[in-house]
Prior knowledge:
The chain is mainly α. The chain is about 70% helix and about 0% strand. The protein is built from 2 helices and no strands. The model has no long low-confidence stretch (mean pLDDT about 75).
Amino acid sequence: xxxxxxxxxxxxxxxxxxxxxxxxxxxxxxxxx
Length: 33
């Protein structure tokens, strides 16, 4: 599933980009395996 993998990559990049700002607003959800 390339689409899923790219989606995960984008989400991860977004999280790293937003970083502490998002962490202050609301706690990060637990990683769903």
